[in-house]
Amino acid sequence: MDKKEEIMLTAIQFFSEKSYFSTSVQEIAEHCEISKGTFYTYFETKEELLIQVIDYSRLKLFEHTMNLDFESTLSPKEKLIKKIVMQYDVIVENKSFIFMLLGTFIPQNNPRVSELIDKIHITTLNWYKTCLLEAYGDKLEPYTWDFTVILQATIKEYLILAIKEDKHLNSEKTVRFVVDRLETLIDHTKDVKPILTSDKMSEFESFEEDINFISPQEQIHQILEEAEKELYRLSLSKEDYRESVSVIQYLRQELDEKKPRRFIIKSLLLYLKDIEGFEILTKRLEMILKSTYL
Q1: According to a count of CB atoms within 10 Å of the terminal CB, is the N or C end of the chain lower?
Q2: Which of 115, 102, 92, 90 minimizes the C-alpha distance to 15?
Q3: Is 210 inside a domain boundary?
Q4: Helices (DSSP H) in 111-215: which residue ranges?
């Protein structure tokens, strides 16, 4: 992890726990073991740090779920559920950023901050709309945007309960329950005028994404990097830490082979699953591995 990323991750933690305005540059610098002068070589102001933190986290929340591709044997509905589960888990894994947005007063006089918050909202809705269209197609018409808002808003409320209220919700059971209920609405909504037409949602439909989609192989590489960083933060013995790092390195080496051996990948993944605090991360990794190697 480079120093700039360390500063941003530290800022997310402080902003989520204390709020943006109650956190000083000095506190962040001291935690990162740098001087205030060094801090300002990376970020001109604390507000500039906030802007980059929001953009960094925005990209992280979406780049892993924008181009997911699952095995062709899955039904469109099952693919939809898996995509939303992946997004759900990524958000829970980055709950400090969500805490920051929910719990801190974001400066409203900076147009760049407002623009980024709007981008998160628009990108989220457009992503849900795309996922629904891939699963149900013309069945959604003329209620595509209405069903999109219902799905996104419902998942959002479950996420808030899981993150802010510390409710331990199984992501797959939660998403499946919501999608099943939504499917009932899709099948039984007729002869009612839609609330959200394309005209009303024109600014959403014309929005151009600025997120660089990454391949499954790149996603796996990034997750393994995240895993190594997370190991450093966990309270492991020196022996367990060294062993766990070795497992990640062995997995990376195996995946780089021309013909990766499935039984080795599965064995190494089982080891990582047993590490306390690694559940969500290994679940994401396994989901991508299943679509590419397993």
Answers
A1: N
A2: 102
A3: no
A4: 111-136, 144-163, 171-188, 202-205
Q: How many structural domains comprise the chain?
A: 3
Strands (E), 129-196: none
- DSSP string covering 193-215, please? --SS-TTTTHHHHT---------
Name the residue with tokens 């995509």: 83
User: Do 50 and 67 lie in a common domain?
Assistant: no
Q: What is the CATH number of the domain that holds 194?
A: 1.10.357
| Residue position matching structure tokens 């589960």 | 85
As a whole number of angstroms, the distance between CA 55 and CA 53 comes to: 6
The answer to whether residues 69 and 291 touch, using CB atoms and an 8 Å cutoff, is yes
In a domain, 79, yes or no: yes
pLDDT digits (tens, 9 = 90+) for 229-282: 778 777 778 888 889 889 899 998 988 888 888 888 888 888 888 887 777 778
Rounded-to-integer distance, Cα 292 and Cα 11, Å? 35
Q: Which of 184, 205, 226 is the last residue of a domain?
A: 205
Nearest to 5 by CA among 272, 278, 225: 225
CA 11, CA 16: separation in Å to the nearest integer?
A: 8
Structural domain for 49, as ranges = 3-56
What CA–CA distance (Å, rounded) separates 130 from 106? 29
The 3-state DSSP class for residue 43 equals coil
CB atoms within 10 A of CB 102: 12
Q: 78: closest CA among 68, 63, 66?
A: 68
Chain Cα centroid distance, residue 43 = 25
Per-residue pLDDT tens digits for 88-145: 988 888 788 777 776 655 666 678 888 888 888 898 999 999 999 999 999 999 999 9
Return d(Cα 62, Cα 17) in angstroms, integer: 24
Residue 7, token pair as written in the block? 């500063």
